[in-house]
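Progress note, sequence design subtask.
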């Protein structure tokens, strides 16, 4: 395999640094800085970057996108101005927001201009296995990959990112990820904020380790592998300490946890309520008034924030510790204690209403028609147990097996309802993600999921000793040879083997 010399340099330095250096970094850098939120963000580096909206071009009834995986460099702040190597899509880091419509055919020309192989996966989409962009759809340096599929998804926020075998963690950390908007008629009929970059804002939330001299560090070593890589600096759409100047009375925030390992519990300063309107795969049946919303890596949520009183709003988050002495696992996610292993609350985004419209728009009372998932539909149950072996080698397994590119772990007949029951015998919570499907959560340890998890999902947190039952069906595509993936979306766990393969067959 050829390797980007810069990325390799980067990796080598981390290896030398080891886990001790990383721990020191984490201990010294506070997550939140003090500043006056009313200080204007205009023309400063704190203005929230909004990824450009890319609609592609329509040719012969197909919407086409030209996407290039390319190298870049970016200064990530700190005391220095050191440039760090990055990877982006049509950009030095991250990439455009792709706008798709349900029902249309799309085709992508994905060119790899990196010095290493990569893949590009469409997270949350139902599509032919050959178009999935998982570890089998390798794009070698200089190669072109041209997947095509029909957009069958409900309107929501999805995303695309690297899924390179054993390299997803470092490649996504190097910023190879970006949002996808799917729109549809069901949602168009509702009066929801939908003006991209104005009142409908993607928030790609990521954490990074930045050295004092400004360079970005991806730590190697046992601790990073076990816990996943968490940074002490938060970036939203690549912007540190971002500020957004809002011009409308109602703001729609589309949150994507694109971090490698960090879990977030998002809330508004001052305990302001927010309306949660969508989960991973689309609108909930009705808005849910919440004080906080939790997202594990890979998960999304959409919120409406009321700015009609004209005062600044601060989106904040806490991060629960995950595993090792944090008993109770992600059950603890809901509490905002400042005593978690990873420190207290921190700021995600400052929202400054500017003069102009502060008129409040009515929020629709009903959003989507969702039937309750009916487990009686299922013709079989498959069981999956997530485990982490302890000790030096730390095996990461599903049903006792590590990911093996040559092994098909499950054969799933097309168009049959199944229950997938996910258990967790490890001491960490794992966000379990399944390709090619939007599923429903039947229950968690026999109890109904909370309302914000009652819609369509493609990633679900499974806490230690929890048993989560999912109802799902692969409706359309079959391929006896090419598999899809299911895996933990803590990217270092995925890379370490907590992933399996399934084929969908006739
Ligand atoms: Cu978001 Cu299999 O990935
Ligand atoms: Cu996926
Ligand atoms: Cu995991």
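Output:
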């Amino acid at each position: 395999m050829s390797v980007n010399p810069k990325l390799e340099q980067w990796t080598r330095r981390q290896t030398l640094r080891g886990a001790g250096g990383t721990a020191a970094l984490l201990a010294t850098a506070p997550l939140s800085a003090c500043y006056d939120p009313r200080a204007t963000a205009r023309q400063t580096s704190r203005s929230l970057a909004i990824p450009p909206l890319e609609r592609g071009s329509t040719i012969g009834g197909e919407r086409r996108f030209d996407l290039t995986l390319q190298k870049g460099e970016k200064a990530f702040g700190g005391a220095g101005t050191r440039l760090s190597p990055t990877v982006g899509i049509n950009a030095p880091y991250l990439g455009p927001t792709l706008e798709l419509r349900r029902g249309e055919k799309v085709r992508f020309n994905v060119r790899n201009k990196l010095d290493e192989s990569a893949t590009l996966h469409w997270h949350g989409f139902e599509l032919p296995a050959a178009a999935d962009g998982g570890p089998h759809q390798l794009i070698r340096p200089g190669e072109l990959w041209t997947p095509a599929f029909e957009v069958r998804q409900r309107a929501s926020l999805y995303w695309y990112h690297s899924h390179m075998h054993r390299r997803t963690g470092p490649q996504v950390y190097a910023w190879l990820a970006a949002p996808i908007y799917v729109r549809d008629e069901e949602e168009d009929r509702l009066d929801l904020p939908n003006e991209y970059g104005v009142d409908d804002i993607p928030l790609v939330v990521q954490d990074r380790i930045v050295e004092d001299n400004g360079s970005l560090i991806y730590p190697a070593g046992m601790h990073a592998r076990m816990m996943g890589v968490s940074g002490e600096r938060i970036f939203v759409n690549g912007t540190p300490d971002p500020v957004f100047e809002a011009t409308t009375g109602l703001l729609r925030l589309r949150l994507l946890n694109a971090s490698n390992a960090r879990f977030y519990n998002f809330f508004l300063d001052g305990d302001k309520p927010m309306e949660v309107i969508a989960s991973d795969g689309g609108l909930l049946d009705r808005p849910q008034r919440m004080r906080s919303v939790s997202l594990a890596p890979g998960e999304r949520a959409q919120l409406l924030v009321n700015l009609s009183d004209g005062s600044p709003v601060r989106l904040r988050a806490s991060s629960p510790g995950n595993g090792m002495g944090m008993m109770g696992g992600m059950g603890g996610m809901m509490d905002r204690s400042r005593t978690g292993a990873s420190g207290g609350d921190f700021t995600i985004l400052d929202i400054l209403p500017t003069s102009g419209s502060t008129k409040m728009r009515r929020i629709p009372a009903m959003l989507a028609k969702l039937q309750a998932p009916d487990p009686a539909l299922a013709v079989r149950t498959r069981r999956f147990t997530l485990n982490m072996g302890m000790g030096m080698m730390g095996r990461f397994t599903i049903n006792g097996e590590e990911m093996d590119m040559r092994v098909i772990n499950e054969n799933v007949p097309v168009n049959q309802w199944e229950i997938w029951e996910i258990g967790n015998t490890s001491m960490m919570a794992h966000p379990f993600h399944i390709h090619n499907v939007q599923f429903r959560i039947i229950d968690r340890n026999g109890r109904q999921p909370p309302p914000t998890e009652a819609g369509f999902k493609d990633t679900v947190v499974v806490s230690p000793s929890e048993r989560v039952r999912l109802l799902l069906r692969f409706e359309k595509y079959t391929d006896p040879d090419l598999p899809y993936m299911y895996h933990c979306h803590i990217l270092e766990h995925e890379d370490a083997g907590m992933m399996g393969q399934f084929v969908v067959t006739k």
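Residues 431 and 475 are 23 Å apart (CA to CA). Work on this subtask will continue into the next period as scheduled.
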